[in-house]
Amino acid sequence: MSDGHDPLSGIDPELRAWHQGALEGDPAVCGAPQPGHPGFPCIWNTNPHPEHRDVFGRTWTQDRGEPVYVAEWVEQSADGTVTLPTLDFGDVTIPCPEWCTGHLAQPQYRSDLTHNGPVVVAKVETECHGVIEFLQTHLSWAPFAELRPEPYPVAAIEVGDGHDFGPDGVRKVAKALLGHAGRLHRFADDLDHLRDGGES
Question: Which domain, by its residues, includes 61?
């Protein structure tokens, strides 16, 4: 890579704006420093978030010494339900699928309540930013969604940002994609099972 290359080349403009806000101390941005990667702080806003994330999608856990913005984590109860605070319906008790990893007890609109399953990712080493994760995939279900109703669970797949690769790097990406393809096939099988009336 030549000198003067923009390290944020290919990054979504909105993510770049949050990154810049974090660097400039914008009070709306978390801005927590990232261990081992100075200059790439957390770009989440200051609402509760379970982990930090930088502009490239790298994540790290909260430092016990920093201000905590994390809401209480709520998992399903013994009867298979979860009770969550909402801004429009108060505390709402809903069935919680067994694959759901839990919820932040952060008040939100009922239509935004979402069950999320464990995340699987493809990983590859880049020449510009070290090891990155891409194609993050997990089961997701927002049973009260209004704009785009979700009567059944879906697979949420995050497409990563742009990075630079040489020939060997491209081969590593291809290898990572082949490995991840098997995981995606399993997600498709899980969705078929759930939509055919299988255990949610």
Answer: 9-70
Are 121 and 66 members of one domain?
no
pLDDT tens for 116-139 read 888 888 888 877 778 888 777 888
Q: Could you tell me if residue 190 is inside a domain?
A: yes
pLDDT digits (tens, 9 = 90+) for 65-105: 555 444 577 888 899 999 998 889 999 999 999 999 888 77
The answer to whether residue 91 is domain-embedded is: no
Is 76 among the domain residues?
no
- Res. 2 pLDDT band, cuts 50 70 90: very low
How much is the average pLDDT of 137-144?
Answer: 88
One-letter-per-residue 3-state SS of the chain: CCCCCCCCCCCCHHHHHHHHHHHHCCCCECCCCCCCCCCCCCCCECCCCCCEECCCCCEECCCCCCCCCCCCEECCCCCCEEEEEECCCEEEEEECCCCCCCEECCCECHHHCCEECCCEEEEEEECCCEEEEEEEEEEEECCCCCCCCCCCCEEEEECCCCCCCCHHHHHHHHHHHHHHHHHHHHHHHHHHHHHCCCCC
Q: Are residues 117 and 186 in the same domain?
A: yes
Residue at which a domain ends, from 24, 45, 70: 70
Do 114 and 174 lie in one domain? The reply is: yes
The reply to whether 98 falls in a domain is no
